[in-house]
Amino acid sequence: MSQARTMDGKVVIVTGAGGGVGKAIALLAAAEGAKVVVNDLGVSLNGEKQALSPAEQVVQAIQTAGGQAIANADSVADWDSAQRMVEQAVDTFGRIDAVVNSAGILRDAIFHKLEPADFESVIRVHLFGAYNTSRAAASHFRAQGGGALVHMTSTSGLIGGLGQANYAAAKMGIVGLSRSISMDMARFGVRSNCIAPHAFSRMIESVPGLSPEEQERYLEKRRQTTRPEQIAPLAVLLCSDQAKDVSGQIFGARGNEVYLYNQPRPIRTLQRGEGWTPSTLAEQMIPAWRTSFTPAERTKDVFGWEAI
Q1: At residue 304, does pLDDT exceed 90?
Q2: CA distance 73 to 98
Q3: Is the overall model pTM greater than 0.85, yes or no?
Q4: Which of 26, 107, 176, 286, CA to CA, is 20 to 30 A from 123?
Q5: How is residue 243 annotated by DSSP?
Q6: 11-260, which class in CATH?
Q7: What pLDDT, in 10s, does the model give residues 112-157?
Q8: Taking the CA atoms of the chain, what radius of gyration do you get in angstroms?
Q9: Apex 103 CA angle, 99 and 106, nearest 5
């Protein structure tokens, strides 16, 4: 007798699933038995419309492999579109069991050159997008007594990076959103977790800072050691019943590594019976805590070892 697959009987929406991490998750979820709504707006990272439909291509790949999937081209940044996406899943497959929020864009700029439109557009796709799709699914999850949300955060927010204040702000907002959902919806059996992925994708490829030759060498190495397919197992697990007791967490996946992030908690305290003034804080707090301050590190400083 063949072993039951991880996602048999489940219906999953994967946003931004026309390529990269989202595509890999959609393909694996389908291979594990899920019926998948493959959402992709069909645009480039800067928001330009593409002639072909990446979502339709992923659907065809799933169907060719014997799975079930439908394409969806709604925008996660729009409330009504997110509602239609979930309605399409329920109308087509009868239910909705999980949403993976993978859709994203980049509008990188050093902060003093970051335009309001580019800040807002990134926030709307990533943070509003995660809210819109999660909220659209929440009523169904509550009614059926369960569901799973998986959100893509980023080391750009968790650790730090250059030229991505809009992206980092959105990704840290997603962490807070996920944590709150995990608490608010726990009574209904709903789980919410984050993944900070390291994977070669259109987003990684678009990050500037190296000469063309250096960038090609760097990207070729990343293509081999940090692939979207290495992120997918963790995301699919978190959508499945095998992770029914896991919620409110931040995971990472990098090459063949998976890891768990800590979350902000107080690490040092000082108390002064008569209270504080700016001067006494400067005299006592700063010297006492200086060695505990988080340094201005970037992702590459924290992950000093090679992915394998």
Answers
A1: no
A2: 18
A3: yes
A4: 26
A5: G
A6: alpha beta
A7: 999 999 999 999 999 999 999 999 999 999 999 999 999 999 999 9
A8: 21
A9: 155
